[in-house]
Amino acid sequence: MTSPRSLPVPPGVSRRGFLAGLGGIAAVGALAACGGGDTGGGSGIQGPTRQIQAANGPVTIPANPQRVACIDFYTTYALLDVGVTPVATAQATVGGVYAPYQQAYDAIPKLGQPTSINVEALAAANPDLVLGTKVPTMQPGLEADLGQIAPYALFDAGSEPGTWKQRALATADAVDRLPQGRQVAAQYAQHAAAIRERFAATLGRTTWGLVRGSSGGAFFADYPTSWSGVVLADAGARFGQATAGKRGAGARLSYEQASQLADCDVLLYLADAQGQVEASTRTLLAQPAFAALPAVRAGRAFPLPNYYTTHYRQGDAVLTTLEQVLRS
User: Fold this and answer.
1) pLDDT tens digits for range 275-307
2) Three-state secondary structure call for residue 206
3) pLDDT digits (tens, 9 = 90+) for 25-58
4) 3-state secondary structure at position 186
5) How far apart are CA 19 and CA 5, in angstroms?
6) Domain coordinates of the chain in residue numbers?
7) CA-wise closest residue to 182 among 171, 194, 193, 192
8) Architecture of the domain made up of 199-327
9) Does 2.60.120.10 match the CATH number of domain 15-185?
């Protein structure tokens, strides 16, 4: 029996924080025959297998899967990062598609939105492994359906969107591409470290805020553990008092509470992967209380493409935008 393989940890993340962020997901890399029950539809696999620990329990999967389907878009992008194209994917519903992946994404057969997967289309794709993110909005009964189609592994998003880093490496591991995943993560980490070093003085005297529009006269100020918040934090950005040190996605504030961001020297606002600013964020930008903020008056409010960061290559693009802002 092969010895258990420890869970891949992204550069700059403590093992304790990693396990907490994943809710205990760990790739154990053992042969299925080495013991433990299987909860991911792993019976009847042809060829070599191994077992991983996912949010849906211990799962026996092909040792080298060839036809991987994704019932979310996080795992789709993580696969593209390591050179694997899924045979089917859920539709991208948040933030648009990272521009260099648009053509590849467009060519992948779609399964519907992550909250309403077309099970028949998934079965027709004939996957030998299904990957996805376990979220409360998953459609009822989906896991039972998945178990009838192929082995499946779901990775826990937890309460912090910034766990995309851990899930990206878990995804790479599931398709036997962990070395490639670690290489992509290392390139990202090196880019972040270069920014911290080159712009240390500026970063040391600057506070940052991340904002996006909402509905009902409100907006979100996002935390350092949000989608792009983890990227800024990795690069050494310090957040303003309203969000510094807080965990989760972000705080929902009324327009009148925009003054809570008055200590931010730079504000970055939501733009999609193509750089477009959606309507609710444009509404936020037009509010007098927002326009009165010192950063806005000083011309230090900038759109942040790829705001909803979901994978390492996209995180690297956010780092490039951050560099441009720091140079401006």
Assistant:
1) 999 999 999 999 999 999 999 999 999 999 999
2) coil
3) 333 333 333 344 555 555 568 889 999 999 999 9
4) helix
5) 14
6) 15-185, 199-327
7) 171
8) 3-Layer(aba) Sandwich (3.40)
9) no
